[in-house]
Model the fold of this input.
Amino acid sequence: MLIINNLYKSFGPNSVLINLNLKVNKAELIHIKGYNGSGKSTLFKIICDILEPNEGHITFDQDVRIGALIENPGFLERENLEYNLKYLSNLINHFDEQKVKELCERLNLDYSNRSALKTYSVGMRQKVGIIQAIMENQNLILFDEPTRGLDEESVKEFSKIVNELINQNKSVIIASHDILDDLNYTKIYIMKDGSLYEEGV
Done:
């Protein structure tokens, strides 16, 4: 589904990713951990084509549809939840309102709330980011610190959603400090010195 070969990325004199390699197959759940600034978000942005690498290659299967929640997701701050989700879906013209309503209910968000997103808490914004990453049947999903600001009940529901995605033959990569006990990771990596090192699951 995803193959990364010899990825290198620097910002000026600072090398962030160095000779990084990663392979993700269908229905895999990958966890990447590392300290703040270790390059996790940079890696995700390169996979999503937000940033370009200095060197290296990324290969996707032809049917890959990427969904992503990357640090501090940006929204139309003056608009409400429904408007934001419809706007984001219109970028590829696919919006399943019933599915979105169900996801909002599972994560305890009020789909009909008319409040602007600028009034949302950190946890509420994370929930919106989670929903937009999976609401269009994406099959390669990247979550960057997805449980930040979430209450215990929402963390458990997030874990259920991830397990369902894997059962649907989709692949998920989670970059976070925490290992969620309710998830069965296929592989666990630590990001250190710009590269990924596999740990035992």
Notes: Residues 2-199 form a domain with the Rossmann fold fold (CATH 3.40.50.300). The chain has five helices and nine strands. The first helix runs from residue 40 to 47.
